[in-house]
Amino acid sequence: MELSPKEYQELVKQRSPKSPIVKDTALAFLTGGAICALGQLILSGFLSLGLDRQDAGTAASVSLVALSALATGLGLYTRLARFAGAGTLVPITGFANAVVSPALDFKSEGFITGAAVKMFTVAGPVIAFGTAASVIYGVVLML
């Protein structure tokens, strides 16, 4: 069966399931908002314990990373991501998930050659290019 690129695109369009964009957007918004609200609750909790704003912010960030890593390890974050989609990409929790997931996937290869090496397969380029971009931006700003 010989198809032109245009015919192939039409066939793909016909056979592809329709995306429920409104539902997906609403779930992403609500889930991302819930994660941010949880972060705010944690921050308020640390503030009420007497920490200054900067220390409370650091403690809240560390808590969100730890909770995200734990949820990833227990398989809960993946189920939440399947349900909520992009709402789980809230930067700090999504980044923690991106580091922990590959490490779990390759743990059978050993600690050093598996988990330690593979944990940055997804997050590594983000770190590298983010750092490079910040250096370039800093140089431009300095000039």
| Unreliable sequence segments | none
C-alpha Rg, in Å?
Answer: 20 Å
Strand tally, please?
0
Distance from N terminus to C terminus (CA atoms, Å) equals: 59 Å
Overall mean confidence score, pLDDT: 86
Describe the structure.
With 143 residues, the protein is mainly alpha-helical. The chain has one domain. The protein contains 7 helices and no strands. Helix 5 runs antiparallel to helix 6. The longest helix is centred in the first third of the chain and has 28 residues. The protein is extended. The mean pLDDT is 86.
Mind sketching the topology for me?
Blueprint: H1 5-15, H2 21-48, H3 53-73, H4 76-84, H5 91-105, H6 111-118, H7 123-142
Task: Provide the descriptors you would attach to this structure in a database record.
143 residues, mainly alpha, 7 helices, extended
Question: In brief, what are we looking at here?
Answer:
By secondary structure, the protein is mostly helical.
